[in-house]
Description:
The protein has a 6-stranded antiparallel β-sheet with strand order 2-1-10-9-6-7, with no helix packed on it. Strands 12-11-13-14-15-16 form a 6-stranded antiparallel β-sheet. A 4-stranded antiparallel β-sheet has the order 3-4-5-8, with no helix packed on it. The protein starts with 16 loop residues before the first strand and ends in a 12-residue tail after the last strand. It has 11 helices and 20 strands. A hairpin with a 2-residue loop joins strand 6 and strand 7. By secondary structure, the chain is of the alpha+beta class.
Amino acid sequence: METGECSGSKPDENPWAKLVSSDSRYQDVDINSNEMIICSEITPTSTEKQSWCKIMRGQDLISATIQNISSHTISVDKAVLNKEESMAIKCGNEIITGPDGKGSLIFIFKLMPIQEQCKNHVEISLDVENTKCSICLNVWHDVVTVSPCLHNFCNGCFSEWLRRSQKQQKGVLCPQCRAVVHSVGRNHFLHNIEEVVLQKFSSLRRSNEELALLDKYASIKSNLVVRIGKSVPRKRPSPSLSAENYETELLCPQCGTELDGYRCDQTTSHLQCQACGGMMPSRPDIGVPQHCLGCNRAFCGAYWRLQGVSANGIARVCNGETFVPISERTISRLPISTHQNNQYEQYITERCIQQSGKTLQDVISDWIVKFNNREIDRSRLPLLHAETITVGTFLCYDCYEKLVAFLLYWYRVSMPKRLLPPDASQREDCWYGYDCRTQHHSEDHAQKRNHVCRPTRGTHRT
Length: 462
């Protein structure tokens, strides 16, 4: 059996999936394009091939979507698909080419192993020795990269090296090449390399106890500026003063001035605020949050508020109200991300709140109490450290809006249909719930079906 024409990207030589026929008289169908129209016999008695479905590869490479392009219904694991309807499929799904199971051909959707899909792709050779931290001599764990030399280390190892260097009142040097370190940050790309190496060489994996100890030492959450003073004198003059002016502009208020009993010195590491771009000393031991727990980015509002420093014309400093605990935040409008950006569902939620006689802030306050009492499943909360967040947690504004959107989902899901506006209470749930992609490009579908619900089909059923 041959496949039909492809739409979309150019076919690869090797198939990434197959339709395996349950009838040995028919050949399997190779799927070697990211979007392929399947053209085959659809019944044991048919003499001509027909185009009956289109299969599209998912971005995660382990799922796909099937669309019925025939004039009759087809089914996937007994779920009926009408003309032009689509649904997610995964390895092992049974696909019937017509409405009659007995009179139609049956295929099993099968994904090919990744190694088989990529067997003709270019392979990159990597020496395992180049993935090891020069401090502990093991494969990186939560790898960080220092600049300007770009050597890599375990987060815990370099964090401890940094602490000791600062304690000795010395400049921070790279443990590998002894170059002066200007900044250090987590390297997410090399973290993926780290995982690949450990999967292939499992004997190099360290024990859970060792990794837990490294995580305990690790203090680098966002980019850390280790050296922000004037540049080291050079034999040749700098071509311009822009770099020096930039460094001077970024000096924090405690560089050269003692505030609240603390003054930065030449060994002090600094964090750059993600809101204002200004600098503050990295002081994880004083009990004042300098990172948002939801995204690990650095924010200076809480730190400078404690120091009694406000914005001025010299240093960049955030207003103290920009980085506060959840309990101190207020909100007056629905976040844009509420209900997966579905404006129709947002409109319904706004009407529900108005009918209740409450404000948006009242509703969120009630649900934050439930959240803090752990009455809500947090598995879909799109924040880091979701299980440790409480009303006293400091979140940046972006993460707070994500939390509000998450709580508004639970507000709607828990609401009885009789309390919904009449035009919304009669709608049936979409099979794909909040994961539905059609709601974003079809206004009619977005209004016709309720999407504030859990998926009952597809790969995410939580």
